Structure prediction request, 544 residues.
Amino acid sequence: MKAAELFIRCLENEGVERIFGIPGEENIDVMEVLLDSKIRFITTRHEQGAAFMADVHGRLTGKAGVCLATLGPGATNLVTGIADANMDRAPVVAIAGQVATTRMHKESHQHLDLVNLFRPLSKYSTQIREPEIIPEIVRKAFKQAEAEKPGASFIDFPENIAKMDIDGKAPLKVQRAMAPVPPVAKVKQAAEIISVATYPLIMVGNGVIRAQVSQHLVAFAEKLNIPVATTFMAKGSIPFGHPLCLGAVGLQAHDYVACGFDRADVIICVGYDMVEYHPHLWHKEKNRNIIHIDATPAEVDEHYIVAAGVIGHIGESLQAIAAIARPRASFPASNLRQTIVDELSEHADDAGFPLKPQKIVWDLRQVLAAQDIVISDVGAHKMWMARMYQAEAPNTCIISNGFASMGIGVPGAIAAKLAFPDRTVLTVTGDAGFLMNSQEIETALRIGTPIVILVWNDSQYGLIKWHQLRHFGRPSHIDFNNPDFVKYAESFGAKGYRVEAATELVPILKQAIADNTTVVIDCPVDYSENMKLTEKLGTLVCPI
Ligand SMILES: Cc1ncc(C[n+]2csc(CCOP(=O)(O)OP(=O)(O)O)c2C)c(N)n1
Ligand SMILES: [Mg+2]
Prediction:
């Protein structure tokens, strides 16, 4: 068989159902073999779109998303999405074409050293130099991408190798390592610290969602009566409606939930990863007892010196500690939770126009069902979504907060809809982030994935303005003009709606979902609320 065919057989063996990408000259053999494969190729309109689709597929399913590009410029266009996946711990395998091995030693048309380019953006970056190593390379790429902590693998496939004949080789057996049972001594140590704590607090990171151990987390918190805060990327790991849930931490300001950290003497970090929320932001004083419960040892940081590290299967660690730790008699954070809950509905009936961020988030929650999926893009809208969107189940509010790249929203929503066709999928995006990958509207329409794109329109890089006002009191170079988003949507053959009064958002959202096609909603937003929030939090009196 041809090496390109062996390569595709190996991808099939990994359970790959779809590849996102753009064909090129240097991967024509792979594209040809794909015609006879059950793997579906999703042709995108930019390689960055393909990389973000693979990224979101990976984080939603735990199985590596796959994207493909040609050499040189095709591969460089993958970079941002792959870096996002890698730093957000989403499993992805990226594949690029490459020039023939016979012209790599000299200056040569479109040749770029891709293995080195992708090295800092991935866990594993390699080139196929001989056809017989294809089964090992593909297996290793998937194994590395999917193992804790997940991330990106990159494979560079030179065109002359893809054409070679290869006999006697077959895909390798797929094996996944299991997280080990946590050591008893460490479980005991953690349980003792928790038993004598006066105010323990649990902080959950995305690792809990990846390990699919939310039910163990909730049981642990309930058994020991300890309040739970989540990072942006762990939203939904405990249902917001749960009385022990304190919502999400991550705003670089002293938010209500930070009051819990002020009071805490023991902070139990579960599946926590410091790329999500740096410890100096919640542990300046370096005087709390930190318990690290995760699949991998803690990263070194002067603000994250652990009192006990319990390494192994997170669910088993939680069960084992809960079985022997002394439960707390009362839950001291009930006032705090009430304050957080009350704030969410403060603007539920606000008639102001443009719409307040709080009102948009509230209306969205009223319209979407518990299992529906929201993908947030990156900007001020993300901060409001992270802070105020009530996620009731894991992986229902996707926020990139490791690499935090703009442009994930539209392609991410397409990948989510492909993975979960029975759920409504909506992206909340800024007007800037939207235009970074809005070309994928054409992809969504062509492949028939209905998604709703809710654009928060402020004609500005809103988050940057917010930072500038906080630091210097005046904005610098953040204005731009937008196209008419309704006409823009219509020009693709999608639907477009413009919100012209606060009361219109809910009916438009309902209509957009019922339309069952790709829909763009242009929603003007009042970001004067950003600095009001900063001022409010600046003078915050903790309700505990
Ligand atoms: C690819 C990329 N470029 C730049 C940034 C820095 N950045 C973060 S938010 C932001 C502004 C986002 O503007 P918009 O999409 O309109 O959202 P808004 O803040 O207005 O809600 C910028 C420039 C980034 N995170 N990612
Ligand atoms: Mg904006």
The longest helix spans residues 72-87. DSSP finds 23 helices and 18 strands in the chain. The two ends are 69 Å apart (CA to CA). The mean pLDDT is 97.
